[in-house]
Design a protein that fits this description.
Helix content is 20%, strand content 31%. It is an alpha+beta fold and 638 residues long. The strands form 8 sheets. An 8-stranded mixed beta sheet has the order 3-4-6-5-7-8-9-12, with helices on both faces. Strands 16, 18, 19, 21, 22 and 23 form a 6-stranded mixed beta sheet that branches. A 4-stranded antiparallel beta sheet has the order 27-26-29-30, covered by helices on one side. Strand 1 and strand 2 form a beta hairpin. Helix 1 crosses helix 11 and helix 2 packs across helix 4. The radius of gyration is 33 Å and the shape is elongated. The N terminus is likely disordered.
């Protein structure tokens, strides 16, 4: 069983093996072999031809088959599985032509990511999308071309979703649980897919308009953001009757064209990105194209700006119903000052924006050509390798896989929360804290006049950056362990409380436990974190016995003659004691920690006193008779 832990080496975060032992959990851990179906044509569409003007007879627009690889878990008994679509990096150009060693669905990082997801029980689908734009153009022409390339890529992923939905039975796909993940350039596609859902977001943003204020992306020509409509010469329209909707996205690299796209209707977003990415801003800044180093999109927003806004808008509300306590989440929470679902990737080299990538250097260097759809075109493999090594000089298989290990772990836990893929009680998706003292199956003898006390304590999980926990110690009967209506409920601001033995004696008396008798009870702790209730990981048994009181005699079951009302009380509490059982001498009101807050002399067996000075909570009313007998009742003050 493979586990992931973090090791911080300077600014580097890498995953190492752990000996932590617990039963395997599907979706959170690797437990399956993987089957792969390759080069499935999911769509055919019209694409920009980068060979136009370079090779005689080439047309500016060509038809292109778009292919995907489907990875499935072997042996999974789940018929319809959550499915993750991975969009690769590559600057919307063929690999090597983009002056990079990577850039399609066969990249090592894409294969590794999809394989790891399938091993956990997901379907994973690596998709190629339409390529083509003039990367040597200068702004604003380059901005328009890159924006249109991103737009086509978004349409392609939506058409991939249509294909998968249509063939859901064939591939075992749960169409209500489709997640889009984007690596590098694919991150632009994933973030656009999560947020662009209206024409105004395409037409009305000034930086995406030409000098004559017309939009750079023409919906009438290219179709809408779902891939529907447009001019058939430029876009083969998708089937509007088949849903193209995903339900969640994550990205590792890339950025959002404009932060205004993100609103309350956007999909949940998990962001993982190098906070020193040289090409895509981690916060808000300029997008730099690697091919010529120019700014093509001003004021784009990366994970550091997107995820906090998604949290603020409520887009990630479902994700925030769980507090993740795995090592990676804890480190990232501290790194981001408590921003959830954000992973600022740190690397050994300042300009390394994609430490999860690796390639066979000798193989890449030897390449003199690459493919653009069905065309073979010249390429400079040695130059692409050299330029890729400039920003990833310590590239290696070992390093890349360690980063992918953490990316997958960070993502799947949040996917599991979003889609309720594991039981709500799963300890990997919430803070787990155990009880400490009194230990399980303890036996305590209590005496009401004892000066001793008992310490109750428990362990807690690290919640740094997420908010303060509030605790409540709860005691219930062994036969009816309903902690919603416990015998005792004691709030605490820290992971321990101290209870006076007199308090416990009063509790037992109110439960009609006489001197010399014992009762089996259960105790636990409920914590509240950011509005979410979290229970301790176990419940302890305890046997309490009432010992003989010193200098105080007690009539057996004398408490049955005492009545207090109303209960709960707000301002005034009425006391009635049966005169046939004795005459009342004094009274006091004690809180659950044993402090006496009110007391006085009684002039009769029936009297009343004000309780409006008491805080809301559980209290004990004790009356002492003239013969020394003691009676106790519990009362709740509202």
């Amino acid at each position: 069983m493979k586990k992931t832990l973090l090791k911080l080496l300077g600014l580097s975060v890498m995953a190492l093996g752990s000996t932590t032992s617990f039963a395997q959990t599907m979706y959170l851990e690797e437990m399956f072999d993987v089957s792969k179906q390759s080069n499935i044509v999911y769509d055919s569409n019209r694409s920009v031809n980068i060979l136009f003007g370079q090779i005689p007879g080439q047309q500016p627009i060509i038809s292109a088959n778009l292919r995907c690889d489907v990875y499935t878990p072997v042996g999974s008994t789940v018929t319809n599985r959550p499915t993750v679509i991975i969009a690769h990096t590559g600057s919307f150009l063929p690999v090597l032509t983009n002056r990079q060693a990577t850039g399609n669905k066969d990249d090592s990082a894409v294969v590794e990511m999809c394989t790891r997801l399938a091993k956990r029980g997901f379907n994973a689908v690596a998709v190629n999308y339409r390529l083509g734009w003039n990367a040597l153009a200068q702004p604003p022409a380059s901005t328009e071309q890159l924006l249109n390339a991103t737009y086509r890529g978004m349409q392609d992923v939506r058409n991939a979703i249509r294909f998968l939905s249509t063939n859901a039975a064939t591939y075992g796909i749960d169409t209500s649980k489709i997640i889009v993940g984007g690596q590098g350039t694919g991150g632009y596609i994933a973030l656009a897919l999560a947020t662009v859902d209206k024409a105004s977001e395409i037409n009305n943003i000034a930086k995406f308009q030409r000098n004559d204020f017309t939009p750079m992306v023409n919906i009438d020509t290219l179709g809408d953001w779902r891939g529907i409509g447009g001019n058939p010469f430029f876009n083969v329209s998708g089937d509007a009757n088949v849903s193209s909707n995903a339900q969640m996205v994550f990205h590792y690299g890339g950025s959002m064209g404009d932060l205004s796209w993100l609103d309350a209707n956007s999909l949940p977003i998990v962001g993982m990105q190098s906070d020193r990415d040289p090409f895509a801003p981690f916060n808000t800044g300029n997008v730099i194209v690697p091919t010529n180093g120019t700014t093509v999109i001003p004021s784009a927003s990366g994970a550091g700006a997107v995820v906090p806004k998604a949290n603020q808008l409520g887009v990630n509300n479902k994700l925030n119903t769980k507090y993740l306590v795995d090592p990676i989440s804890n480190v990232m929470r501290a790194r981001t000052n408590g921003v959830e679902h954000l992973y600022p990737v740190r690397t050994n080299f300042p300009q390394d924006g994609a430490p999860w990538e690796w390639w066979d250097r000798a193989n890449v260097q030897a390449k003199l050509s690459t493919n653009f759809y069905t065309q073979t075109i010249p390429a400079d493999g040695r130059g692409a390798d050299s330029l890729s090594m400039l920003v990833n000089p310590d590239m290696s298989v070992t390093k890349a896989k360690k980063y992918i290990d953490t990316l997958v772990d960070f993502s799947v836990r949040r996917i599991a929360v979003q889609f309720d893929l594991v039981p709500a009680s799963n300890d990997q998706l919430k803070p787990s804290f155990g009880l400490v003292a009194p230990v399980n199956n303890s036996s305590l003898v209590v005496k009401g006049d004892s000066n001793n006390s008992v310490n109750v304590s428990w362990n807690v999980a690290n919640t740094t950056g997420f908010g303060n926990m509030a605790y409540a110690w709860k005691l219930s009967t062994a036969s009816n362990t309903d902690f919603a209506t416990p015998l005792a409920n004691v709030p605490s601001s820290k992971p321990s409380i101290t209870l006076d033995y007199r308090t416990i004696d009063a509790l037992l008396a109110s439960a009609n436990v006489n001197i010399g008798d014992s009762v089996d009870l259960k105790w636990t702790v409920q914590a509240n974190l950011n509005g979410n209730s979290i229970w301790s990981s176990d419940t302890f048994n305890i046997r309490l016995s009432r010992g003989q009181l010193t200098n105080v005699k007690e009539i057996a079951n004398v408490s049955k003659h005492l009545s207090v009302y109303p209960n709960p009380a707000k301002t005034v509490l009425n006391i009635e004691f049966n005169a046939a059982a004795g005459n009342v001498s004094t009274y006091n009101v004690m809180d659950i920690t044993g402090r006496v807050l009110l007391n006085g002399n009684a002039t009769s067996n029936n009297f009343a006193f004000d309780v409006n000075t008491l805080n809301a909570g559980l209290y004990f009313v004790n009356i002492t008779l003239k013969d020394g007998s003691v009676a106790t009742k519990r009362v709740v003050i509202e």
